[in-house]
């Protein structure tokens, strides 16, 4: 996790520098920071393997993170995010076509996610519905203490789509949102399987000042 911690640190150092530069150029406050927390509802796409019937197991997980919001205009924002996601998704693989015993291959049990969302909102009032779209780069958290027989996952690139509703209070803003994240790459590293793609739906609550 040292490498991933370095990535997060560099990300926020860069945003702080950008924030300072923009505030010098424009007296209007365009940048704010926030925290979020939510739940994952995963779904896998598994390519069929001849004479093998893998079973996917999908259970809810949790996520939390930090984000920056850059206001381009009243109706357009950009929001870089860093989130850590705990997932409970796996593929159950039978030892043979006649066996009732299975091995389990976990898909992103933990992952660092780096994303940038373009946010389009529909108003200036205290309630602001919005839509979002943007790329999401997932880095699996590898367990260094896991035995060599445990297969890990490849990095993934996804496209996020979502809707949300921001509520403006006197001292802070809260925005519940729903995102659909479509994985584009094969994340499988288990030789028994051909291809596994990871998708999920997230329900996230964003808090910012």
Describe the model.
It is elongated, with a radius of gyration of 20 Å. It starts with a helix and ends with a strand. The longest helix has 24 residues, at 2-25. The chain has one domain (31-208): Porin. The chain has an 8-stranded antiparallel β-barrel. 11% of the residues lie in helices and 58% in strands. It is mainly beta and 209 residues long.
Radius of gyration: 20 Å
Query: Averaged pLDDT, please?
Result: 85
Strand content: over 45%
Tell how many strands the DSSP assignment holds.
9
Distance between the termini: 29 Å
Query: What shape does the CA trace take?
Result: elongated
CATH topology: Porin
Strand order of the largest sheet: 1-2-3-5-6-7-8-9
CATH class: Mainly Beta
In helices, the fraction of residues equals 10-25%
Number of helices: 1
Unreliable residue stretches: none
The name of the CATH architecture is Beta Barrel
- What sequence of helices (H) and strands (E) makes up the elements? HEEEEEEEEE
Largest sheet: 8 strands, antiparallel, barrel
- Based on helices, strands and strand pairing, what is the structural class? mainly beta
Total domain modules: 1
Explain the layout of strands and helices.
Elements: H1 2-25, E1 31-46, E2 55-71, E3 76-94, E4 102-107, E5 110-121, E6 127-140, E7 156-168, E8 173-183, E9 196-208
Antiparallel strand pairs: 1-2, 1-9, 2-3, 3-4, 3-5, 5-6, 6-7, 7-8, 8-9
């Amino acid at each position: 996790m040292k490498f991933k911690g370095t990535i997060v640190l560099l990300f926020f150092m860069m945003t702080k520098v950008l924030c300072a530069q923009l505030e010098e150029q424009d007296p209007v406050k365009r940048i704010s920071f926030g925290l979020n927390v939510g739940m994952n509802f995963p779904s896998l796409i598994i390519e069929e393997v001849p004479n093998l019937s893998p079973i996917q197991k999908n259970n809810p997980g949790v996520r939390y993170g930090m984000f920056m919001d850059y206001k381009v205009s009243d109706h357009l924002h950009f929001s870089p995010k860093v989130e850590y996601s705990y997932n409970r998704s796996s593929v159950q693989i039978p030892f043979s076509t006649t066996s009732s015993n299975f091995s389990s291959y976990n898909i992103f049990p933990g992952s660092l996610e780096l994303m940038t969302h373009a946010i389009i909102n529909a108003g200036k009032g205290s309630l602001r519905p919005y839509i979002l779209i943007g790329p999401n780069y997932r880095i699996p958290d590898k367990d260094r203490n896991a035995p060599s027989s445990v297969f890990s996952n490849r990095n993934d690139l996804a496209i996020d789509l979502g809707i949300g509703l921001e509520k403006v209070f006197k001292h802070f803003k809260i925005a519940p949102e729903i995102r659909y994240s479509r994985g584009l790459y094969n994340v499988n590293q288990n030789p028994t399987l051909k291809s596994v793609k990871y998708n999920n739906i997230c329900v996230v609550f964003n808090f910012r000042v």
